[in-house]
Structures are given as structure tokens and as C-alpha cells.
Design goal:
The chain is of the alpha+beta class. The chain is built from eleven helices and eleven strands. The chain is globular and about 60 Å long. 36% of the residues are buried.
Length: 315
């Protein structure tokens, strides 16, 4: 249900080719690179496509993005064009007229494609110890945030890159992977489920992750909805996943100490969540989901029905 159909995949690829053709009509030597959820495969039919233009020979991103926005608009290929040029990373946002798909375009930001490569490696590592795969798990949380309009950094939400790091760190450090839990599982206390062995938490050997996706979702919502002290502690998936002191990393914002801190595994000086100013709302919806999923059901009550009826109150 979450994965795009073959027709939707082709529609996205066709829109991508159209944008690439327009870029090359202006800067023939430029590279048009894809990153974000589309490149990693962790996208839904409603996800934006993130691309970056590199090697155009124009160092001013504002001029380059304005020229591209003008060309796309003049050719009547797009609608709802937005030029977000005063942000730390300037971008243009638009929807393709033919497909209705949304695009975000950046300029000379090679860290995006590098981040996608990192996600691939993290997925491969975690897929070895989690039979369900990190992809399906991440998609559920992405859709959860998208439905509540909390998935865009420019609107204060959690971007896909930060979310992948959060998910990876959570899965890497989950309690089921601790040596004691792994030993209990191999001893038959976990229904006889076989557990693998891999490095976690900076070199410790631990068992495979809990196989029950529902339990993992509950634990994720609890961690980021109520348990994590975001004022003091940040999270990263580097070195097997770890928590860290925000003050020690220089990531603590004195004016906004409540902000979530997520360290970029590719750049230790980069806090990828520093612009997610609406984190209080994100935390509230995570906590609400945790309470909803763990509250006892009345006789004959459907948890799914309760979740559907309460969807609007989560916003």
C-alpha cells in the first residue's frame, strides 16, 4: 500500500527526465543528481523528489535557481513554483503539471547524494539483523509524519535524512540487541527465535533486532515522544549508534534548548535537525501515538478503528 506502483515509478522517472532536459538546455555540462527518499528507495507516491544541480559553472545558487525556475515556468511545465532562496540551503520547489509530482531542487550540494549512499550502507547493515528490513519500518514513520504535515524541514518538521538517522540509531541501539537480551533470546525465552550477531553501540556484540514491527513502532514513539531528553541529549547512527551531550558537541541552542539534535554521520559538525523548529509538535504526535497504541482496548473495540478515529486529534 505504501510502495508506488509501476506506473507511478515510470511517471516519476519521466518527470525527472523532463527536469534534467531543461537543466541541460541551459547548462549542458551540468550534472543533475538525485538524493533523498527517491534515491534511497524509501519513498511513497506522495514523496517529493530531491535533486541537486552540480557543475553548472555558476557559483551563485540564487542566480542558478532563479534561471531554472524561470525556464521551467516559461515552458509551462510546472505549477506552484516557490523560490526559497533565503534559507541556509536555497532551493526551489514546484509541482510538475503532467504528473503532479513535487520536486525540490538545490544547487551544488553534493552532501545530499553522499547522504543517500550512507543510507544504503546503513540499510544493508541493519537488514542483516532485522528480517523486516529498515525500509518498511522507515516508510511507516515517514507516512505518519507526512499525514500530519510534519515532514518538511522548511516548515519546522523532520526531514527524511534526519528521520533515517533517527530510525537507524534507534534500531542499532534497541534493547533487544543488548547482549543480555540476545542471550535470553538464544536460550528459548523469545519463542526460540534465532538471533544473529553483529556489532552495535561502538563495538559490542549483540543479537538481531526484535522481529515484531508493532513493538518496534511502540518503542520508537516512546523514545522520541517522551523518553529522550532532547534539551540535553542528541542522537546519531555513527559507530553503531549512540547518544551524546548536545553541549559537548556544540549543538545546544541557548535560545531554543528543546530542539532535537541529530548528528550527521558524514559531517560530525552538522546537526541535521537544527532547523526542525516545530519539534514540540512532532514530539506530541509521537507521544500521542505511543499512548494510543499502549492504552487497553475496551471489549470489542478495534485498535485500528480507534487509531483512525483519532487521526485528526494527532495533528
Amino acid at each position: 500500500m505504501l510502495e508506488p506502483t509501476a506506473e507511478e515509478v515510470e511517471s516519476r522517472a519521466r518527470s525527472m527526465r523532463t527536469v534534467r532536459e531543461v537543466v541541460h538546455s541551459i547548462w549542458p555540462q551540468a550534472e543533475v543528481l538525485v538524493f533523498g527518499s527517491y534515491e534511497t528507495g524509501l519513498y511513497t507516491p506522495a514523496s517529493d523528489t530531491d535533486i541537486v544541480v552540480c557543475g553548472a559553472g555558476l557559483n551563485d545558487p540564487t542566480k542558478g535557481l532563479k534561471a531554472l525556475a524561470h525556464a521551467l515556468t516559461q515552458r509551462q511545465l510546472v505549477r506552484n513554483m516557490q523560490q526559497v532562496l533565503t534559507a541556509r540551503v536555497p532551493i526551489i520547489k514546484f509541482e510538475m503539471l503532467e504528473s503532479g509530482l513535487a520536486f525540490d531542487v538545490a544547487w551544488e550540494q553534493r552532501s545530499g547524494p553522499a547522504g543517500a549512499a550512507m543510507v544504503f550502507l546503513t540499510q544493508r547493515e541493519l537488514n542483516e539483523v532485522y528480517a523486516g528490513g529498515i525500509g518498511s519500518y522507515s516508510l511507516i514513520i515517514m507516512v505518519f509524519l507526512t499525514q500530519r504535515e510534519l515532514n518538511e524541514v522548511y516548515a519546522g518538521g523532520i526531514g527524511s535524512y534526519s528521520l533515517i538517522i533517527m530510525v537507524a540509531a534507534f534500531l542499532q541501539m534497541h534493547a533487544s540487541r543488548r547482549p543480555a537480551a540476545a542471550a535470553a533470546g538464544s536460550g528459548g525465552g523469545n519463542g526460540g527465535r534465532k538471533r544473529g550477531r553483529s556489532s552495535v553501540g561502538g563495538g559490542e556484540l549483540a543479537g538481531a533486532l526484535e522481529a515484531n514491527l508493532g513493538l518496534l513502532l511502540v518503542d520508537f514513539m516512546r523514545l522520541y515522544g517522551r523518553a529522550l531528553n532532547m534539551s540535553e541529549v542528541g542522537v546519531t547512527c555513527s559507530n553503531g549508534g549512540c547518544f551524546y551531550s548536545k553541549a559537548a558537541k556544540g549543538f545546544k541552542d541557548g535560545g531554543r534548548p528543546h530542539l532535537l539534535s541529530v548528528q550527521d554521520p558524514l559531517d560530525a559538525a552538522n546537526d541535521t535537525a537544527r532547523n526542525s523548529w516545530n519539534i514540540k509538535t512532532v514530539r506530541q504526535v509521537f507521544d500521542h501515538a505511543y499512548q494510543l497504541l499502549t492504552a487497553p482496548c475496551a471489549p470489542g473495540e478495534s485498535l485500528l478503528g480507534r487509531s483512525s478515529a483519532s487521526a485528526e486529534s494527532c495533528v
